[in-house]
From TrEMBL:
Region (Disordered), start-end ranges: 1-20
Protein name in UniProt: Heme chaperone HemW
Span of domain Radical SAM core: 24-270
InterPro entries listed in its UniProt record: Coproporphyrinogen-III_oxidase (IPR034505), Elp3/MiaA/NifB-like_rSAM (IPR006638), HemW-like (IPR004559), rSAM (IPR007197), rSAM_horseshoe (IPR023404), rSAM_sf (IPR058240)
Keywords, comma-separated and alphabetical: 4Fe-4S, Chaperone, Cytoplasm, Heme, Iron, Iron-sulfur, Metal-binding, S-adenosyl-L-methionine
Transmembrane segments annotated in the record for this chain: none
Taxonomic lineage of the native organism: Bacteria, Bacillati, Actinomycetota, Actinomycetes, Pseudonocardiales
Role: Probably acts as a heme chaperone, transferring heme to an unknown acceptor. Binds one molecule of heme per monomer, possibly covalently. Binds 1 [4Fe-4S] cluster. The cluster is coordinated with 3 cysteines and an exchangeable S-adenosyl-L-methionine.
Annotated organism of origin: Actinomycetospora chibensis
A Pfam family reported for this protein in Swiss-Prot or TrEMBL: Radical_SAM
Cited PANTHER family: COPROPORPHYRINIGEN III OXIDASE, RADICAL S-ADENOSYL METHIONINE DOMAIN-CONTAINING PROTEIN 1, MITOCHONDRIAL
Nucleotidyltransferase as UniProt keyword: no
Family of this protein: Belongs to the anaerobic coproporphyrinogen-III oxidase family. HemW subfamily.
Claim: Chaperone is one of the keywords in the record: yes
Length: 411
């Protein structure tokens, strides 16, 4: 995972973890996240830790911010990680995110997976996902990564409508994502996700339905759909501030969510997390379920976040600083923190409540259970599930998930 880092204590130069964090390592699901910070262009809505070639001022492949230097740094971090963990578990899942991992090309993507195998190994049947953009993905790339062991592709579609893609500063054209889905399935990739964004200024209900029709016709077996958030500091936020585009309306976003849920549900997709739908249990993203279930993962790459046994840490954000630290034999971790019991409880409620299995009522204290009773009476939690001892959101509850979670957690 990669995001704006919180505050924390300095991380040790060798990356060592408290002994208590290593207790039980391997008994919990374990994943590897690899952050690829490179993009061809910057989308106006994006506030992720990503860089274009012009942002980095690259002068050659030996530049400390170059993809080649990043890959060498990644190999060193994975080796460091294996040493820090002592007897590192084989990875249940690997997820390459970004950024645009497909910009690495087939050779780069294969090299990343080889590095993970060399440092950690993969469990039998491991899920291996890479994100990609349609314009940087080819049949040859898909064939090569399938042969290398990738099992899942996650494509940034966002919309299938010209004017919506233009507002989002996306480079691909309508139909491109669906074409790549077909190419991926032909190459033997087992599962394909399409990312959608709904609520973009100028988007209509008809535009969203058109995008959903394209998703369903593509053959993808997983959809992640997120409401547009206007993040501070982005080009989109500046356009909204200047009055060029309206701020997304909460009521419109709720209506659009219901369109997504109705359309996907009618086509045989089931929701299993508030923003994620899959055609089958096998099609669900098992890597994300490690995050939602409080498992362990090592996040490698600039700005990547990690969590092992109640300790979480995050790397320096700039690719040049990341590569330089590892070249000098130092951990790239910028800071870390120990998760308090109160924080762990809040995160458990916030994350587990968002899933179709919900949250065990026994995880709540007295006031939390009282809040759950009230939410069930109001139709925000499924009454039958609550009676059986689980807090499971209704669809109306999904629209208010964070607020309900906070009331249940007593935060």
């Amino acid at each position: 995972m990669s995001s704006v880092p919180p505050s924390g204590e300095p991380a040790p130069p060798d990356g060592a973890l408290p002994a208590s964090s290593l207790t039980g390592l391997g008994t919990r699901p374990f994943g590897i996240y690899v952050h690829v910070p490179f993009c061809a262009t910057r989308c106006g809505y994006c506030d992720f830790n990503t860089y274009t070639a012009s942002d980095l001022g690259l002068t050659g492949s030996d530049d400390p911010a170059s993809p080649a230097s990043w890959l060498e740094g990644l190999r060193r971090e994975l080796d460091l990680a294996a040493g820090v963990l002592g007897m590192p578990p084989s990875a249940d899942t690997v997820f390459l995110g970004g950024g645009t991992p497909s910009l690495l090309g087939a050779e780069g993507l294969v090299a990343v997976l080889d590095a993970v195998r060399g440092s950690f190994g993969l469990r039998p049947g491991a899920e291996v996902t890479t994100e990609a953009n349609p314009e940087s993905t080819t049949p040859e790339l898909l064939a090569a990564i399938t042969d290398a062991g990738y099992t899942r592709l996650s494509l940034g579609m966002q919309s299938d409508v010209d004017h919506v893609l233009a507002v989002l500063d996306r480079r691909h054209t309508p139909g491109a994502a669906a074409r790549v889905v077909g190419e991926a399935l032909d190459a033997g990739i087992g599962h394909v996700n399409l990312d959608l964004i709904y609520g973009t200024p100028t988007e209509t209900d008809a535009d969203l339905r058109r995008s959903l029709d394209a998703v369903l016709a593509s053959g993808a077996d997983h959809v992640s759909a997120y409401s547009l958030i206007v993040e501070e500091g982005t080009a989109l936020a500046r356009r909204v501030a200047r009055g060029e585009l309206p701020m997304p309306d909460d009521d419109v976003l709720a209506d659009r969510y219901e369109i997504v849920d109705d359309t996907l549900g009618a086509a045989g997709f089931g929701w299993y997390e508030v923003s994620n739908w899959a055609r089958s249990t096998d099609a669900r993203c098992h890597h994300n379920r490690i995050y939602w279930g409080g498992g362990d993962w090592w996040g490698a790459g600039p700005g990547a976040h990690s969590h092992v046994g109640g300790t979480r840490w995050w790397n320096v954000r700039h690719p040049a600083r990341y590569s330089a630290a590892l070249a000098e034999g130092r951990s790239p971790a910028e800071a870390r923190e120990r998760v308090t019991p109160e924080e762990a409880h809040l995160e458990q409620v916030l994350l587990e409540l968002r899933t179709v299995d919900g949250l065990a009522a026994e995880a709540l204290d007295g006031p939390g259970r009282a809040a759950g009773e009230q939410a069930a009476r109001e139709g925000l939690l499924a009454p039958d599930a609550w009676a059986d001892g689980r807090a499971v959101l209704t669809r109306r509850g999904r629209l208010l998930a964070d607020g309900i979670a906070i009331s249940l957690a007593g935060a």
